[in-house]
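Supplementary Text 2. Reproducibility record for the structural model of the 198-residue chain.

All settings were left at their defaults, and a single model was retained for analysis rather than an ensemble. We include the record here because the model underlies the residue-level annotations in Supplementary Table 4.
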Amino acid sequence: MNIKDVISLILFFTFVISYFMKLVLLSRKNEISANVLGKGNKPPATVIVETAVKISSFCWAILWFLNSLGIGDYRSISFARPVGWMGVIVAGIGLSVFIAAMLYMKTSWRVGIDNSTETSLVTNGIYRYSRNPAFTGFDLMFIGFMMMYPNLLALIVGVSNLFFFHLLIIQEERHLKHTFGETYNRYARDTPRYLWFI
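Retained model, structure tokens:
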């Protein structure tokens, strides 16, 4: 295991621990069941997208962990070393953005679209610059992962996640328009979906 793999493993465990800590804290301190991915009474299209996100993100997490251990990492690719280090940086930035998004969402943070509990529309902090900073953080982690471990399986899993998470964003935006009406429409007009230019 080289230093890049050690840092990759640290990033992976930081992601996993922060993700599950948020779920546990919301459950214990606020009695909120925040993991609603693929659960509840939702339109069929939303259930399909959420199920695809659940499967693809699980595959990504497993593959990231295994590649960090040196399993399935094709080190013979000549450009892998510099690109891999750039991937570590991109994944680290993505992880930081994801954690900041979770913190700013406070008790409104959910995994999936929640039709059963009332939440508030968060538009401050990092949400002033992106309507979907948690998803942007995920996307950066997916891209960083593909750069750290440039192999066919990582490419398939990474691109699948980018695609399915984008579909989930579209479903979530429909839900937010329905829930918050003109307040969300104004926010969407003033704030990009991902970053400043998108």
